[in-house]
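Dear colleague,

Thank you for sharing your sequence with our group. We've completed the structure prediction you requested, and as agreed, I am returning the results in plain text so they can be pasted directly into your records. Please verify that the sequence below matches your submission; if there's any discrepancy, let me know and we will rerun it promptly.
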Amino acid sequence: MHTKLILTLLLASTCAVAADVTKSAVEAEAFERHCTDQQSANICASYDVRNAQEQLKLLQSRENKKLEKFPDKQRRLAAAQDRWEKFIQADCEFQTGVYGKDSGSGYLQRYGRCLESHLQIRIKQMAAYVACEQDGCNPW
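Please find the predicted structure tokens below.
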């Protein structure tokens, strides 16, 4: 729940509410400024998190479709994803502090960059699962 609150704050603070990963006018302007000031840095971090989340959702959807005949594996994948989300929340809180307590002007950007880093790792893992064509193959 805390991760959802932070993501909501991250998105709300940047006016980035579009559901797709197409850059809004505000995001495009921030990228043109090379994300150098605090507001544009928050906008860039928000965009990067949204983009990574959309990539991961697409890969998860592909893997779930592949596992349609194996509902137990689908449940285990969902449980693993839930645990992974809790892990990244805890890890990013460790790395960046707790919102409201340890936050400062750069908090949302730091938290967003932490999430995006974890998301990129998970994207590689999920892509390997999707590419795996035999039962029991090691996605690493």
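Summary note from our side: The mean pLDDT is 78.

Kind regards,
the structure core
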